[in-house]
Design a protein that fits this description.
heterodimer, A: 6-stranded mixed beta sheet, 4-stranded antiparallel beta sheet, elongated, B: D-Maltodextrin-Binding Protein, domain 2, 3 domains, 5-stranded mixed beta sheet, 5 strands, 65% helix, binds adenosine-5'-diphosphate, binds magnesium ion
Chain lengths: 310, 439
């Protein structure tokens, strides 16, 4: 549905999108995860025909964004990062305006508006001016405005920024239910948990470059991150234990850290029987053992070198 | 598509109470303020500086000097003496507001025979020419009144010389009016003389009444302009002169605000949404132009309705002229600030530039002074401001009572400016990369 290859977009000297490639299949929720300034919005702008690319190419539903912008625009819905609503108009008028701009009218438009308001749980606020809405209500309407013409693909640019947890989970549910009806979603976020829980596949982007791509498991494997088994051993036994463990198969390396033995290995759980046997052979007990599995947070930290800001 | 964009803007305007108030109330307030500052409802005479006036005639030097000094000292007039050909030229060129043609012999004014004084008026400055006419009329009434008093007080054949018998004294010596009448009726030499005296006095009384009505001195008033084809004379209502100019001045601000809506849509994020919708490349600009035009039209309607109802402003004799001028003016103003909106980066920047431009154009283009009365320098420079053409058009209608046929060239200029500015806006939009340039 979306194919991006070697896309480049610069603002002056700044390469906001730098040789970016990825593809999104039909019915997928694809997450573009990256910190602020990573190039997510710029990517969406190019895909939605707002900005011309400097190099590379992108196509949406088989139509090149540069060559056939009209065909692309009719098939996509865009939910901008900033709220983009007419505050003076009612929810219904907002939806009707954009529906009409896409050529909808009459009973078809009416039933579509009713359906979307129902979905967004805004039906009883349909005739209220948007300026009186809460942040979460505005966010939901903002999404619906991108859906009014029933696009095949929806670009969602950080749709949950600045709202509380409850409103956020309502929006994520909304997106899941739209996706269940066959909508393909390109979802950008800088919230790791959102990408982790919502998206089928994730592209991690930083400085305009794709740093990792795949589903959660694939990402972790790509990084080559290992389990860490951390065990308390008497101080005197630490050094010989580390030396011994390092020689075991499947162990990458063993180390001493803060008075504990740390064994980095491919599969921590599989290591446990051997560890126990070796320790008791040496007359040692198995004290305070923990197995640390890598998560996306550590992966993300490793990729971008910075913690995500809320 | 355009319809959807315009309806959207109308709805936004309508639900923005402040915008509605500005659109509808501002023209009303404007008319009211003008009414109060210029002598109240119903219209009064504005302050006027000395009116240039040509005097034609050849009175004796003493009289000439006195007349000129009196005119100057009144503070109302700046008279110049000249011959009739020169006076004609001055009136036509608008260098004097009127010329007064005195009879060959000014002494005639004091005789009971009819004499004629001519007044040539410059129809371009009808207010001041009217003042000349009115003052002249009043002056003549006074002269005629004085003449009547003179005639009544000094009967034509004079008082009896000293030493002559006084027929009145004898005749009126009596105790009752009946006795007096009896004496006259019964006849005697003295009574006959007294009767003739009475008749003479009555004749003078009749002459006195005649002296006022009809006037012994007739005023012939002529408008002196070749262009004055239509029968309708220039307006005498001051609001016809100043209201359209002021209205257009305010409309320029409204037009700038309407064009600045592009900045508001950008800041509000909705521009991004509109840009990804399948619209034609210039639909967005044309849509904003159409809305600004409707908005301006509405303001003009309110302005003229208020001017008409409160101050009996003239809407011209031709029912189509004013609507046509209003549409052309709104179309022009709606396009005027679109290029600026595209070239500025935010509403604040645009606001300060457009305010400066508006004030300058209003000063040069005749929004503060009636276009007819602008100094020659401004008349020439004004042509280069778009608002000048709007001012001229409304002046033609409200002041000179011109019809559609007469204003058509100016209306064409207005529509031409609108087309050019719109084309410039579209060109800027395309040149700056269309959508990318707007983001
Ligand atoms: N119109 C622009 N002009 C100049 N620089 C821009 C423009 N838009 C974005 N950038 C820069 O490009 C980089 C990527 O921006 P953006 O795509 O908005 O990131 P994200 O959406 O991931 O936060 C940032 O450094 C931003 O400052
Ligand atoms: Mg962004």
């Amino acid at each position: 549905m979306i194919r991006v290859s070697n896309l480049v977009k610069s603002f002056g000297d700044l390469r906001a999108v730098d040789d970016l490639s990825f593809a999104v299949g039909p019915g997928e929720i694809f997450g573009l995860l990256g910190p602020n300034g990573a190039g997510k919005t710029t990517t969406i702008s190019v895909l939605s025909t707002l900005l011309p690319a400097d190099a590379g190419s992108a196509s949406v539903c088989g139509h090149d964004v540069a060559a056939e912008p009209g065909a692309v625009r009719r098939r996509i819905g865009v939910v901008p990062q900033e709220l983009a609503l007419y505050e003076e108009l009612t929810a219904e008028q907002n939806l009707a305006t954009f529906g009409q701009l896409y050529g909808l009218s009459g009973p078809r438009l009416k039933s579509r508006i009713g359906e979307l308001l129902e979905l967004a749980e805004l039906a009883e606020h349909a005739r209220r001016p948007v300026k009186g809405f809460s942040g979460g209500m505005k966010r939901r309407l903002n999404i619906m405005l991108g859906l009014v013409h029933a696009p095949e693909i929806l670009f969602l640019d950080e749709p949950t920024v600045g709202i509380d947890a409850q409103a956020r989970s309502r929006i994520l549910d909304l997106i899941r239910s739209m996706n269940a009806r066959g909508l393909t979603v390109l979802y950008t976020t800088h919230y790791l948990e959102e990408a982790e829980h919502l998206c089928d596949r994730i592209g991690v982007i930083d400085h305009g470059r794709l740093a990792a791509l795949g589903d959660k498991e694939e990402l972790i494997r790509q990084i080559g991150e290992h389990d860490v088994v951390r065990v308390q051993v008497p101080a005197a036994a630490l050094a010989p234990a580390a030396a011994a463990a390092a020689a075991w198969p499947d162990v990458t390396f063993a180390d001493l850290r803060r008075g504990k033995l740390e064994i980095h290995c491919r599969d921590g759980a599989a290591l446990l029987p051997r560890l126990q046997a070796e320790l008791s052979a040496g007359g040692l007990g198995l004290d305070q053992l923990e197995v640390i599995r890598p998560n996306l947070e550590s992966l993300y930290l490793k990729i971008t070198g910075r913690a995500l800001r809320e | 598509m355009l319809r959807v964009l315009v309806i959207k803007d109308i709805r936004r305007w309508w639900s923005d109470r402040q915008a509605v108030i500005v659109t509808l109330l501002l023209p009303l307030m404007l008319t009211a303020v003008l009414g109060i500052s210029f002598g109240g409802f119903g219209g009064g005479a504005p302050e006027i500086e000395a009116i240039p006036l040509a005097l034609v005639g050849d009175p004796p030097a003493l009289l000439r000097e006195q007349l000129e000094r009196a005119l100057r000292e009144s503070g109302l007039f700046a008279p110049v003496w000249c011959d009739s050909a020169e006076a004609d030229r001055l009136v036509r060129k608008g260098e004097v507001r009127a010329a007064v043609l005195l009879p060959g012999d000014l002494q005639q004014l004091l005789s009971p025979e009819r004499v004629a004084i001519g007044v040539w008026k410059d129809p371009g400055s009808v207010l001041q020419a009217d003042i000349v006419e009115q003052i002249l009329r009043r002056g003549l009434k006074r002269v005629q009144g004085g003449e009547a008093v003179y005639l009544a007080a000094w009967p034509a054949d004079g008082f009896p010389a000293t030493g002559e018998p006084d027929p009145f004294g004898d005749l009126l010596a009596g105790d009752s009016l009946a006795a007096v009448w009896r004496r006259i009726r019964d006849g005697s030499a003295e009574a006959e003389a007294a009767r003739q005296k009475f008749e003479a006095i009555l004749d003078h009384q009749a002459a006195l009444i005649d002296a006022f009505d009809p006037p012994a001195v007739a005023l012939t008033v002529v408008d002196r302009t070749g262009q004055e084809a239509k029968g309708v004379g220039p307006s005498t209502n001051m609001f016809d002169y100043i209201l359209p100019g002021m209205g257009i001045f305010f409309l320029m601000f409204a037009a700038a605000a309407a064009a600045g809506d592009l900045h508001r849509e950008r800041a509000g994020g909705t521009l991004r949404r509109l840009l990804v919708a399948p619209l034609g490349s210039s639909d967005l600009l044309v849509g904003k132009w159409l809305f600004a035009m409707l908005n301006g039209l509405l303001q003009l309607v309110v302005l003229f309705a208020a001017g008409r109802l409160l101050f009996r402003m003239s809407l011209g004799p031709d029912p189509l002229a004013l609507p046509l001028a209003a549409v052309a003016t709104s179309a022009m103003l709606a396009s005027l600030f679109l290029p600026l909106a595209l070239l500025t980066s935010n509403e604040k920047q645009m606001g300060s530039i457009s305010t400066g431009v508006t004030l300058f154009m209003a000063m040069v283009g005749g929004n503060f002074i009636n276009v007819d009365q602008m100094p020659a320098v401004l008349q020439a420079a004004g042509r280069f401001t778009p608002n000048y053409w709007a001012n001229r058009t409304f002046n033609d209608i409200a002041v000179h009572g011109r019809g559609v046929g007469d204003i058509l060239p100016r209306v064409a200029v207005l529509f031409g400016i609108a087309a050019v500015m719109l084309a410039v806006a579209v060109a800027i939009y395309r040149r700056r990369g269309g959508k990318a340039g707007l983001l």
